[in-house]
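User: Can you model how zinc ion sits in this protein?
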Amino acid sequence: MYPQSLQKLIECFRRIPGVGEKTAERYALAVTEMDPSAALEFSRAIEEVKTRLTTCHICGNLSDEETCPICADPDRNHKMIFVVQSARDVIAMEKTGQYRGVYHVLNGLLSPSKGIMPEDLNLDRLVERAADAQEIIIATNATMDGETTAMYIDRLLKETCPDVLVTRIAHGLPAGGLLDYADEMTLAHALTDRRQM
Ligand SMILES: [Zn+2]
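Assistant: Here's the modeled complex, given as structure tokens:
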């Protein structure tokens, strides 16, 4: 029913999680109403995010540079490392404005049932960084995979860096809720109420 070019754009929008048929149609039609320069800017931004965006060589966070702005910030506490599943969690935590340490992005959670093993996660670099750290705060979510991952990291760090303090954020997060959707206050409290593992 739509011209082929428009249909193609609708299908592209539908690939975004949470975007259904109706929303995809609305987005695609909105693009048809944009000035050519605005539409081009849109497509260039998508291209740039895939060609320029990389991961920080220290923490694994998304970054335009080899070292992300957080790792490059001398005013942050580099001895305190907040360990999260994905770059989205970094964004959520930064929004709270309550955390002045640095991060470590695992890029997933351990899941034996899905075949995701320790070597699939950004763990070697975490062990290296933990050697110079004072505290490692494990902030994987409260799902089964999140807990499995937290326990694995705790054991790994106790074996490799026994002097580092390992803490876990309090489970003030909604049951089964993901860290990235938790509201800012809950997240800030979960940090304040963290416990030693
Ligand atoms: Zn970084």
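A couple of observations from the model: DSSP finds seven helices and seven strands in the chain. The radius of gyration is 20 Å.
User: Helpful, thanks.
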